[in-house]
From TrEMBL:
Superkingdom assignment: Bacteria
A biological-process GO annotation: DNA transposition
A GO MF term: transposase activity
Record protein name field: Transposase IS4-like domain-containing protein
């Protein structure tokens, strides 16, 4: 199992490329009870916000810029900007993972092999951050 710098478990789930991130998110969060969930605009949906509210999880999700076909709708939901800024750590991690050519181009066709390379790349990134002098 992968862990972050503080030793907390990190969960990852491999899905098909055409599956939206929100689809397997409920499966990943099934037995977790986080105090807040930080996500990008793609997670801004009424059903997702209702699911999080039912679990007493604070949704730190900015509203989509455009709702409907033509009109700009201002944000209906507020969010904690300072907490949302911490999301860039995840984005930087994915940028570092994509430096591994095998991960970025998905040479491996079998999901087990691809996920193993993901775990290896994440471990190498973790070792660089922990053991840097």
């Amino acid at each position: 199992m992968l862990t972050d710098v503080l030793g907390r478990p990190v969960r990852a789930l491999l899905t098909a490329g055409s599956v939206h991130d929100r689809t397997p998110a409920e499966q990943v969060l099934a037995d977790l009870r986080p105090a807040c969930l930080v996500a990008d605009r793609g997670y801004d949906a009424r059903a997702w916000r209702a699911y999080l509210a039912a679990r007493n999880t604070l949704a730190v999700i900015p509203a989509q810029r455009k709702r409907g076909d033509t009109a700009y709708t201002p944000a209906r939901y507020g969010y904690d900007v300072n907490r949302y800024r911490q999301r860039n750590a995840i984005e930087r991690t994915f940028a570092k993972l994509k430096q591994f050519r095998r991960f970025a181009t998905r040479y491996d066709k079998r999901p087990e092999c691809f996920f193993a390379w993901f775990q290896l790349g994440a471990t190498l990134i973790w070792l660089k951050t922990v053991h840097m002098p």
